[in-house]
């Protein structure tokens, strides 16, 4: 669990199944006779689909008598006695603590093994998020690899949504987007708890009920700002990287648009006899270097004209991928591709409705009040709006 709150207020998430109202909306068909207000249900179809040839259950009806409403007032504090029986003179706070921002997973074993992925926001500003995924194995029988990844996903050119991904043994199990932002002070918590505080009966007083969870091989991200922080770095053993090549393709790992060309020759550290006569003693074997290179004389078309389903010509934006290849002294290679990028050579367009209106703001009259004259002698504030449909930038 990632807990973004005070460490003395850590609490777990209580998962509850959402009540399926639709499954019980036509239970009035079980009444004999069927009431008039049940006309919105097709009772014949409902009973056939749900029960088939089985014996229909009997739905009992009850009548209730309205009782007079007794209004009571609940006090924020309750007066209780101390353990020694004396009266408590200082009120005890019985209020419910404020919900803290948190996200996590809950792993359940037993007859119905499952994983619950959940998130909650501070003070329940938004409704809690939760998903349930059943497992085909009992997670308590063997060790399994669980991976939690939190990363931003771009919905469009402007909006970014934080998403939580859960992987089990290398396979993606759940994805939850729109989660609350967790600060860099969030704490990682591992714990075992009793669901709904359930304690099994004690059958043997010499062997009390207990349960344990074992964690091993915990891998955390490198410190913020570190090179090679994301993903698994390529390691060539004792063979150094002798050159880097780069190219551009229409798909990942392809270079059909611009073929591979050599862009960098790194400094070779002196390691072993193989690099003795072509190494540089000034190179540190343990250093990680951030290389910057430029591809020149590329011809990347922004769009491609094609015939759409209606037979008309239409411009389709082309996506490109930058692929880099590292070549070892032994001849082994490793390639990696970037995310898709687009080429846009169209200029932005200013919104005339905004630009022809009052765009100046006098900060002495408020942050959002357009004016023709301003009283401030040290601050001038203005706003404008432009957009680019091709790049989806506002």
What does the model show?
The chain is mainly β and 394 residues long. The protein has 3 domains: 1-62 and 78-220, no CATH class; 241-342, no CATH class; 349-387, no CATH class. The chain contains 2 helices and 21 strands. Strands 6-5-4-1-10 form a 5-stranded antiparallel β-sheet, with no helix packed on it. Strands 11, 12, 15, 16 and 17 form a 5-stranded antiparallel β-sheet that branches. It has a 3-stranded antiparallel β-sheet with strand order 7-8-9, with no helix packed on it. Strand 11 and strand 12 (258-264) form a beta hairpin. This is Jagged 1-like.
Largest sheet: 5 strands, antiparallel
The total domain count is 3
Gross geometry: extended
Poorly predicted regions are none
Structural class call reads: mainly beta
> Strands across the major sheet, in which order?
6-5-4-1-10
- Mean pLDDT, to the nearest integer, reads 82
> Cα distance, first to last residue?
37 Å
Pattern of helices and strands: EHEEEEEEEEEEEEEEEEEHEEE
Figure out the total of helices.
Answer: 2
- Give the helix proportion (percent range): under 10%
Total strands: the figure is: 21
Q: Evaluate the radius of gyration.
A: 32 Å
Strand content: 25-35%
Organism: Mytilus galloprovincialis
Protein name: Jagged 1-like
Which features does this protein show?
single chain; 394 residues; mainly beta; 3 domains; five-stranded antiparallel sheet; 21 strands; extended; Jagged 1-like
């Amino acid at each position: 669990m990632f807990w973004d709150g005070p460490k003395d207020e850590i609490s777990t998430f209580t998962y509850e199944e959402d009540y399926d109202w639709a499954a019980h909306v036509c239970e009035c068909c079980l009444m004999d006779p069927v009431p008039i207000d049940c006309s919105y249900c097709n009772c014949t179809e409902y009973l056939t689909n749900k029960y088939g040839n089985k014996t229909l259950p009997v739905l009992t009806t009850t009548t209730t008598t309205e009782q007079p409403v007794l209004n009571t007032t609940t006090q924020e504090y309750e007066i209780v006695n101390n353990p020694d029986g004396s009266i408590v003179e200082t009120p005890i706070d019985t209020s419910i603590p404020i919900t803290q921002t948190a996200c996590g997973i809950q792993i359940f074993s037993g007859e119905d093994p499952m994983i619950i992925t959940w998130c909650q926001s501070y003070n329940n500003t938004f409704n809690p998020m939760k998903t349930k995924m059943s497992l085909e194995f009992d997670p308590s029988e063997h060790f399994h690899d669980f991976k939690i990844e939190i990363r931003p996903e771009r919905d469009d050119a402007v909006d970014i949504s934080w998403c939580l991904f859960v992987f089990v043994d290398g396979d993606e199990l759940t994805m939850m987007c729109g989660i609350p932002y967790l600060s860099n002070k969030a704490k990682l918590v591992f714990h075992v708890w009793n669901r709904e505080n359930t304690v099994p009966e004690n059958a043997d007083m010499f062997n009390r009920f207990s349960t344990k969870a074992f964690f091993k091989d915990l891998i955390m991200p490198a410190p913020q700002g570190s090179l090679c922080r994301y993903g698994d770095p390529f390691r060539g053993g004792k063979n150094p990287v002798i050159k880097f090549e780069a190219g551009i393709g229409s798909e990942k790992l392809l270079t059909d648009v611009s073929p591979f060309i050599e862009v960098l020759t790194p400094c070779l550290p002196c390691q072993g006899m193989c690099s003795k006569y072509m190494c540089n003693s000034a190179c540190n074997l343990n250093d990680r270097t951030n290389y910057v290179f430029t591809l020149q004389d590329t011809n990347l078309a922004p769009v491609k004209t094609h015939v759409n389903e209606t037979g008309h010509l239409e411009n389709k934006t082309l996506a490109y991928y930058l692929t880099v290849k590292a070549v070892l002294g032994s001849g082994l290679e490793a390639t990696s591709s970037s995310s898709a990028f687009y080429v846009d050579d169209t200029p932005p367009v200013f919104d005339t409705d905004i630009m022809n209106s009052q765009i100046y703001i006098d900060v002495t009259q408020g942050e959002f009040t357009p004016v023709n004259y301003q009283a401030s002698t040290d601050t001038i504030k203005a706003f404008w709006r432009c957009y680019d449909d091709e790049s989806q930038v506002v």
